[in-house]
Predict the 3D structure of the following.
Amino acid sequence: MMTTLAASTLAEFFNRYVSPEIALSLAAVFHAVILLLVFAHAAFVFIWLERKVSGRIQDRLGPTRTGGRFGWLQSLADGIKLIQKEDLIPRDADAFLFRLAPYLACIASFGGFIVLPFAADWVAVSLDTGLFLLFAILSLEVLGIVLAGYSSGSKWSLFGGMREAAQMVSYEIPLAICGLIPIVAAGTLNLTEVGRMQVGWFVNWFMFHDPFTFFAFFVYFTVATAGCKRAPFDLAEAESELVGGFHTEYSGMRWSYFFMAEYASMLLVSGVASLLFLGGWSTGLGPIDHAVFVDLKSWNPGIGPEGFVLGSYISNVIGTAVFLSKASVLVFVQIWVRWTFPRLRIDQVMTTCLKYLVPMACFLFLGATMWPLLVAMGQGQKTTLWWQPLGDRTVQVQEVSPHPLNEPEIEIADRGERALGKPGTQAVANKELLTEAAHSPSEQGRQP
Amino acid sequence: MNGGQVLFGIFALLTCGGAVAVALTQNVVRMAFWLIVSLGSASGLFFLLHADFVGATQLLIYVGGTVVLLIFGVMLTTSGPFLRISSSPGELMQSAVVGVLFIAMFFFTVWSVDWQAVADTTRAHDAAAATVALQNDTTGRSIGMAFLGPRPDRDLGADASRGLSTGYFLPFEIISIHLLVVLIGAAYLARAKRQQTAVEIGGDAE
């Protein structure tokens, strides 16, 4: 099923009207602005949600007045208040690092959205190493927190920073391992492809791929909650012990940057969870998915500028809505957990990670790796692992390879031609090839 | 001068500037910050070259791992609020001499290469494949294949009598075993020390 995308990237689309250099810059600015809006609105919506949910859980009403009903403008009021506040820097602080730390936290949290796909075609940068880069960027957020704690020149902040560093260094291990478990099933680190593989009935979601991925989702979600330093793992700011932890000395906008970073990274890890385990933009109902992501996508009434396909656009809007809804539900669960569970002690946090979560993640990873072998053996099939010669595997490698380097002497020439046919649709064709290859191991196996 | 060159200039300037600032700063944690700038910009250079995997690895290992551990170590071990390192004039002279010699070596090496010829050879060699990989954002794929063992980028279409090329599978495994040994060794060392003190304390009590 070929999609009739006229331009596969925004830069190509702009390139119809302006020179390549300007088109590339325009596309970059466009992506950056949209992601910045997502980043800011995540904080805007989720801070309001946090107040509202915490209020309800504590048998209060939460904000009710600002903006009319439900206090939905409360975050804006908070923002205006925070901008007006004085920007204090303690005398003992290292002023240079103290000023920079909130930006570091924000940049790291924002950076993760660069590789996060919101719909099948809506991703700022679609990389083959997408998830790897995402985890690399996630590991940077701790730097802002630790520097803030260290440079404040206050004991509370220093303790907060140290706890955050110890916690993050430990929790990154199970986070990365849990992220790899659905990747074992998917066979690609490209998050767009991971999402595309799960479209269809909800049994296609990697959470239901095998028992190991099912449990991995819960481990991942626990670890990701800790990674965002959310309660019950919010030892870095523990109000009851450390005043405000790493942000004790901060005021005004700089203080709020930390919270923007926190809420945005909550959305980020929830988005990754929904993408890796919960089907991404898939609605979970086969016919609906087929109608939206296949039929609607190729519908082109010819409205709008050249290179714009209305059906594809609407399909992506629906995909984004589904994806963001899933991620928001997970963020809601994080908020719910925060106001329900008591905070752990720092030693309990470390024990939970190193003695329980890391072994669990390792076991699940091992299980997910062995699962295809177990299934194949259970069906009495020969496993490709032991009986297939290397030459056969090289043939498959060429089949999924995006660029047939030379004239292939094997009978996959027709596929190669399809991939090399039109430059504009090449990426799509190759991705289809890949998806097909990943979905049909038996088909690969029958190649000579 | 196109956009890529401008970006390269910015990242290169930040990389070098950060490195110089690391050398000139005396406060250890500020050094760590400048290290973040320098290493992060270096990974930006890798991304600019479409070496996504190397860039992400640079971020993960150096910025996210090493620098965090450095700051963590400083926070755990220092007695005062802000640790400063000041070197004596002798040390300064020594390091300046070594540094200048090293830079000189780099300059001579870089200048003695005919870069135009290198660029032409590279372009002639694998221009087609590189362009396709760039268009599809799949520049990391060949290294991923090589980690698994097969080298389709070399073997396909090559002379069959030459035999198959080797990938990085074995080196990769050897490195991971090596790291495992190091981890176990570190855990053992940390553990043995504590047991020893317990024994010593027990001996004193007797």
About this structure: DSSP finds 19 helices and no strands in chain A. Chain A touches chain B through 55 residues (CB under 8 Å). Chain A has a mean pLDDT of 78.
